[in-house]
Amino acid sequence: MIAEQPTRKVTKELRAAGFTRVRDAKGSHGFWACPTGRHTMTIPDGHKTISPGVIRKVNKAIAECDCK
Length: 68
Hints:
It is a single chain. 34% of the residues lie in helices and 28% in strands. It is α+β, with helices and mostly antiparallel strands. It has one domain: Metal Transport, Frataxin, Chain A, CATH 3.30.920. The strands form two sheets. A three-stranded antiparallel beta sheet has the order 2-3-4, with helices on one face. The protein has a two-stranded antiparallel sheet with strand order 1-5. Strand 2 (20-24) and strand 3 form a beta hairpin. The longest helix has 13 residues, at 52-64. The protein is globular and about 30 Å long. The N and C termini lie far apart (27 Å).
């Protein structure tokens, strides 16, 4: 089972996988994309932790992205 993780840890994992923050999204969210733009997602920035569902989505996008 996946647990909540700190926002900073998740953003570090995204950057290490080659994802970049493209722009701001609604509210306190950021729009992230892989270098090819094939995998995109919004991540909450203003929160201390990120929910397990979003963590699962991030891990899936990192695994499917072969842009490293």
